[in-house]
Amino acid sequence: MRHFPQLSEATLSRLFHHRPQPFDRTAPRALLAHALGATLYVPATRDQLADTIRRRHAAGVLSMVIDLEDAVADDAAQLAVERTVAALTELAADPGALPLLFVRPRTTADTAHLLAELGTGIRALTGVVLPKFAAGPGREALAAARARGLYAMPVLETAAIVYRETRDEALGGIATVLGEYRESILAVRIGATDMSALFGIRRDRDLTIYDVHVVAETISAIVGRLGRSDGTGFVVTGPVWEYFADHERMFRPLLRATPFERNHAARFREQLVGRDLDGLLRETALDRANGLHGKTVIHPSHVAAVHALSSVTHEEHQDALDIAGREAGGVLASSYRNKMNEMKPHRNWARHTLIRADLFGVTRPEIGFVDLLTALVEGR
How far apart are CA 37 and CA 4, in angstroms? Predict the structure, then answer.
């Protein structure tokens, strides 16, 4: 696999100083976690599920989840299992041509039973996504995943984590369980929709999840407990963005006009705003600022936006190389002469940035985000 497979050789040469590098399911866990990028969820009841997965993969989706939980109505639960088994059995014939593929059972407690039903189709999977994860049933699900050589991605979204009076104990228990199965944990996911539902909240498309303070506070607590860079933490991924259609706006768009005007792309900016992708772009930027990597998405149009923001700029790459190359510490002006790089405090940032650079590439000095996103959306 390689990010941006839809771009031609000429376009890759024009955009990238350092091209995205290939990887596969055998890559080290830390690299694979960062490689997830925009993880697309697809309902398990989808007609022609196997064909949908192949088609999305060919269009640049490198991680997908077959969802048997929230995306499936109660009376379609058995149909979802049957279609999942059929699709994975078909896909297992050529697992090397697949994205990083996961299945989300209806409940975490269903994990072992579902994996047993998959038969040979399990060869198509990279792992399982564990909804409404809690320490008790979570331990059994993690054992089932490890026994079959699969990664697990627990989703943190329960009331015990959101409510302040139980949060510390719940996160402590989860941290203990995840530590026991560290090599099986690919990433920790955040279920912001379920968190919001506990308060009867649904964020408006003019806002980001960080404007919903009860959820933002919980995200902060999760990163503070499970996203540490001291060897005890895990990659934590960004929550879902659920909008993709035009609407009447109350507030100004979140995209500045100037970068698009410089690229003669004012019309393209209007299209992004019309599809609410300015909100997605803003939230994705805030995800990274808050220590999250990658993002859950529910529509193919979201993937290019998340991946474009995942690429590393030439300036970021130079800073990361300068920092990573000085073990002795100290402080130096950046190569771009516009900031100070503190070698020890910025070392973990540099490490994450260099991983991202290999996976999503380093853009040329004259290439901006608008150039990359335009190429991805328009296929040129």
Answer: 11
Query: Residue by residue, what is the 3-state secondary structure of 186-202?
Result: CCEEECHHHHHHCCCCC
Q: Answer whether 239's CB lies under 8 Å from 191's CB.
A: yes
pLDDT band for position 207 (cuts 50, 70, 90): confident
Kindly state the tokens that stand for 288: 């990274």
Chain length of the chain: 380
What does the alpha-carbon distance between residue 59 and residue 319 come to, in Å, rounded to a whole number?
A: 32
Taking alpha carbons only, the member of 304, 226, 314, 239 closest to residue 272 is 304
**Lookup: tokens for 366:** 């004259």
Q: Which tokens go with 314?
A: 């030439």
Distances (CA, A) of 96 to 108, 140, 218: 27, 29, 37
pTM of the full structure: 0.91
- For the segment 194-198, the average pLDDT, to the nearest whole number, is 96
- Helix/strand/coil for 42: strand
